[in-house]
Amino acid sequence: MSLLNFLRSKVFLKQLLLALLALIIFAFIMLKYLKWRTNHGQFVKVPELAGKSLDVAGIELKDNDLVLVVQDSANYNPDFPRFSVIEQIPEAGSLVKEERKIYITLNPSGFRKVAVPEIIRKTYRQAKPTLETIGFEIGKITYVNDIGKDEVISMSHEGERLSPGTLLPKTSKIDLVLGNGSRAQ
Question: pTM for this structure?
Answer without folding.
Answer: 0.56
